[in-house]
Each structure stands twice: as C-alpha cells, then as structure tokens.
C-alpha cells in the first residue's frame, strides 16, 4: 500500500509544478507608438520616425501584477529644419510610470510622472466592458481569444488577445479583467500597440511585485485635469512628445 501511494505522488507532482508555474512570472512587451498618426502636418512627419518602441515588463503572480518600463529610458531631443528654414526641435519625454493591480482586493495603485513631478494615484479597479468575439489566433505558441471594447472617454476602439492557458487577469498598461493573460493590445487601430516578445515563468520575490509608493497623492480625476492642462500649455501633440518651432 505504501509503495502504491509513493508511485502515485511521484506521477502527479510534475503536473502540479507545471500548473503552478503558469500563474507566476514575467512578460516582456514592446509598446509601439505610431507617432505619425498624432500629427496633421506632413512636413513634421518627414522629420521624425513613424514609430517609437518602448520596452515594458509585467510581473504577475495570481491576482497581482506590476507593470513598468523594463529599462530606464532617457528623454530624447533632436533638431531639424523645416521647409521654411525654421529650426524645429522635437522633445520626446518618457515618463517612468508604474501600475500595480490586485484583482482580489480590487486595488489599483499607480506612480505617474508629469513635468518632472511624481504623483501617486490610488483607486479601485474599474470593470472593463470587454466583449468576446469568438475569433482566435496563436501568439507566442499560445491559443488566444479576441476581446473588444470602446474607451468611452475618447471613443477609441480597443482590441485585446488573451490566453486562458495563463489564468491571470492582468495585461499591459491598464488593460486586464479577462479570464487569462493579455498578450496583445491594439488601441485605436494601430495608434498604440502592445506586443508580447517573451514570457518567463519563474518564482518572484517580494520586490518584483512591490506596490509603488512616494510621490504626491492625488485622485485619478485630479491627475487627468493636470495632465490635460499641461499638454495644452506646452503645445503637446500627445503620446509623450511635443514639437517646438524657433
């Protein structure tokens, strides 16, 4: 009887280990921003690359996740001359934001950077009105399902692809709430795209999922107002960059 029990435990233990690993690890994403879609001036489009790509990282364990830049990314500045001989300086500012989510506690904590100042935004998780379409495709060898929604704030369509093979409710940026990890997101028909480049299942430490802290505490509505005012004042074109004519 003891021998039979021992054999049974050895047989099932590898399966148990594999299942546990699917709930914990890190995902690398490319955040690809279409800079040209945010510009109306064709001469400006000729002066900057069409796309900018940021390397991002999501640490996840069950219902918890932490999304941030995979590496410190410096601001970029460049100068060129337009058709009228004016000097044009482009400034790309890369905010070092972090987003922590806990779906069990329905908690969302973010560090957001604006004009060199950090703000701490705490809020409850909002339900995202996803609709499943029934469409499927493979991403990183995972069977994924398509979900869509419309951002009511700016009326932008959003498409997400998620896999139930990794049963965690998180995804890149603020996207989540689906019955599986989100591996790909398309915002506003290519305006901004998040693409999974690597999935690494491994045990995480406490620091890997540490909720952001520091910065000035502020509500989400207050931050949105500050951001909109700043963008208007600085003549921002959106997407973290602005163009200055001298």
How many beta-strand elements?
Answer: 16
The end-to-end span amounts to 86 Å
Strand order of the largest sheet: 9-10-11-12-13-1-2-3-6-7-8-14
Mean pLDDT: 81
What is the CATH T-level topology? outer membrane lipoprotein receptor (LolB), chain A
In the residues, how many domains can be counted? 1
Q: Main β-sheet, in a few words?
A: 12 strands, mixed
What is the number of helices? 3
Question: Would you tell me the structural class of the helices and strands?
Answer: alpha+beta
Strand content: over 45%
Taken in chain order, the helices and strands follow as: HEHEEEEEEEEEEEEEHEE
The best one-word shape is: globular
CATH architecture: Clam
**Structural Rg:** 21 Å
List low-pLDDT spans. 1-20
Signal peptide: 1-20
Pfam family, one: PNGase_F-II_N
Keywords: Signal
Protein name: GLPGLI family protein
């Amino acid at each position: 009887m003891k021998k039979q029990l021992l054999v049974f435990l050895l047989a099932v233990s590898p399966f148990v280990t594999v299942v546990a690993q699917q709930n914990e690890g890190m995902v690398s994403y490319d955040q690809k921003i279409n800079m040209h879609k945010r510009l109306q001036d064709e001469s400006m489009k000729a002066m900057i690359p069409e796309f900018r790509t940021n390397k991002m990282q999501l640490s996840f364990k069950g219902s918890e996740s932490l999304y941030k830049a995979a590496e410190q990314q410096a601001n970029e500045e460049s100068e060129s001359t337009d058709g009228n001989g004016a000097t044009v300086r482009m400034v790309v500012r890369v905010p070092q934001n972090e987003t922590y989510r806990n779906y069990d506690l329905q908690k969302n904590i973010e560090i957001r950077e604006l004009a060199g100042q950090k703000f701490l935004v705490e809020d409850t998780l909002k339900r995202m009105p996803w609709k499943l379409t029934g469409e499927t495709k493979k991403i990183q060898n995972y069977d994924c399902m398509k979900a869509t929604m419309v951002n009511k704030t700016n009326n932008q369509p959003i498409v997400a692809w998620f896999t139930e093979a990794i049963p965690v409710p998180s995804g890149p940026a603020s996207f989540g709430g689906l019955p599986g990890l989100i591996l790909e997101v398309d915002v506003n028909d290519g305006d901004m795209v998040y693409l999974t480049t690597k999935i690494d299942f491994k045990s995480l430490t406490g620091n890997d999922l540490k909720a952001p802290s520091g910065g000035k505490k502020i509500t989400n509505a207050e931050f949105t107002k500050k951001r909109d005012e700043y963008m208007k004042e600085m003549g921002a074109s959106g997407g973290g960059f602005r163009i200055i004519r001298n």
